[in-house]
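--- STAGE predict ---
source: upstream dedup step, 1 unique chain passed
mode: sequence only
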Amino acid sequence: MVKVIKVIYIVFICILFCSCTCGGKEGQVAESREKEQEVTENMIEENKEVEKYPEVVDETGVSRQLKLGQINIEETGNKLQEIYFTSDYSQIVDGHYYYMRSDVSGNHTVYRDKKEVVTRFVINSGYLYSFFKCGDLFYGLLEEKNGDADGIKYIKKLICINPNTGNTTVLKDMSKDNFNSIQKTLIVYKDFLYYEDWSTLVPDSFTGRLAQLRLNGGLEKKHLPVYSKLEKTFPKPPLTLIDGKLYYVLQEEKKVTLFSFDLDNNTEEEVFCYERKNNDAESEVVLQIDDDYIYCQDYIIPRKGGKMRQILKERDDRIPLSYNDDYIFYIDKDRHLHRIKKNTYKDILLFGQREVEGVDCVGEGIYVRCCNHRVEEIKEEEEDIAEGVAAPYSSCSLFYMDVHGKNRKCLCYETAYKIDWADLWKELR
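--- STAGE serialize ---
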């Protein structure tokens, strides 16, 4: 009897031990599931927070979502402009300001910051109508006249300048792309040149395909998908390239819409739209973005949400803005330089002694290109060109000053002379 009791006792202990062990495992599993569920719920909540876009109120009082998201402003492509004369060139690269001057013999000098010589090179023939730095090299777009009166051809070339030697090398005949020298889509981003390729038209359209040309490694070229809204738009709008995305603006009457096109996955989306009270804005809009605002037409759009402000009504919108963390610099319709403080929107006249052609802010200083005489535009009508009107021209002075307009230093002096546009036109064309 005692043995039977002992056996029953041992069996009971074993059953009790097993039940406790199983219960512990079940408890651990339940606890693990609870933790997994908690993590999943937290991830869902985090995703919800990411998807919450800031609300921006336009001038009609309507609140709209701004779907810009996080972008790296440091990865902004350089928009290229046609340069009639070398003093028109200016570019900020890696926190340095680059500019150029030349003489009548075709000797060109590239400077950096406060007159530091970067390189010198010679253009013996042709017209250098665009210039830019990419990586360690400099590039130019050159137009040359070839042939005689019976058969004249205008050849457009992409050239490369080695800053160490000053030697120039022709990389590509851009004439084959039916390349237009005056382009609103001309951008350098990382190792690529973006431009409108008129040799390949968008089907059922009168616009060229947007091309991406690799500047190193074989000059490989490819085009954007034809199905994108950007490709089907005629004429192509001015483009801004930041952090792997193209940004552009389209306006239909009072409605203004901002779009983005992702170059990595070829997707296009609407970023923001607003409605103006009137329809008196320019149809072509140059978009600029920094860490605080989107600059569109005469508005600043706060990236963190809030109310759009129309503080750029007096701005000459043909000339790009410049900015840093504290200030916005713009040139008004009378070609005077202004500064707006970002946190108070106070606008002051910073430089009004001369007509300002451009401003570039680098850190706590600004570079100001200006001249005493406004450059007269080349008239497009043949009868006006044939008249051969002599127009005053000034190679821009270049000043460096602090952001308060003080401590001014002239880096390049103005060179004024008379030029006959008709003779120049015949020489170039």
